[in-house]
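User: Run a structure prediction on this.
Assistant: Running it now.
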Amino acid sequence: MRLNLAHTLLRSAANGPGERFVLWVQGCPLACPDCWNPDTWAFERRDLRSVEELASVILATEGIEGVTFTGGEPFAQARALTVLAERVRAAGLSVFVFTGYDLDELTRPEHRALLAVTDVLVAGRYVEAERTDRLAWRGSANQRVHDLSDRYSPDDWNEVAAAEFHFAKDGTLTVTGFPAADMLAFAVDV
């Protein structure tokens, strides 16, 4: 079983509680206007990785709280992500998923299977008119945080939005999380 990925990040504190391994999947049918990740929309082959390989890399990453699935649209690859989530949860890691769908739209059996192994779901389309940098883990105020397990409490969602800048060895800059507009202007100027 394989996943088509746009990007991975070994460690992030801006994509869910604690330090997390982050997977951006490739492909999104929603294409929300002004989305932060339009390069992940196309359903083209980008970086095919086996679930087993990814599980090994994630489980070898020391000191992380869990894994975050984002994209693209994670529920477009729900079957493979369910298998990966089962593996990492069995090892004691949490699963955090960002989706453009509302919770009540995730009705297919493969969607329900992924929800069953998700600790926290942030759901809802990105809406530029409701853009915020004041809510933890949400780009727009219409998005909702759903506790799907008892691993975390609602008090964990009182954090403010966070952003990170990661520089790769090749000089590539990745901005992740929920940066304020002035931070994005700085990133463009760098």
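Residues 52 and 84 are 8 Å apart (CA to CA).
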